[in-house]
Amino acid sequence: MANGKKQKMTAKQLKEREERALERQRLAEEKKKREELLKRIFVIAVCVILILALSLPTMGLMFLGGNQ
Predict the structure, then answer these.
(1) Largest Cα–Cα separation, the chain
(2) Cα 37 to chain center, whole Å?
(3) What is the pLDDT averaged over residues 33-37?
């Protein structure tokens, strides 16, 4: 009877448990890599937007207003 004691696992059950743990670990690593990639893409997009926002008015002033 199992009165509060853990039941001994068979080799097959241990193998299945290890496989499930490895699968969870692999999925967690993939999720982390994807989040890092999305963060990197977001940072690059923000940088490009800032560069355009700062350079376009400067170029416009240089060509249009710089001849005075």
Answers:
(1) 97
(2) 5
(3) 98
- Could you tell me which residues come within 8 angstroms of residue 48 by beta carbon, excluding any fewer than 6 positions away? none
Query: Which residue is associated with the tokens 């743990």?
Result: 21
Six-digit token string for 52? 């355009």
Residue 8 — very low, low, confident or very high, per pLDDT cuts 50/70/90?
confident
Residues 6 or more apart whose Cβ sits within 8 Å of residue 21: none
The span from the CA of 16 to the CA of 22, in Å, is: 10
**SS3 assignment, position 42:** helix
With contact defined as beta carbons under 8 Å apart, do 9 and 17 qualify?
yes
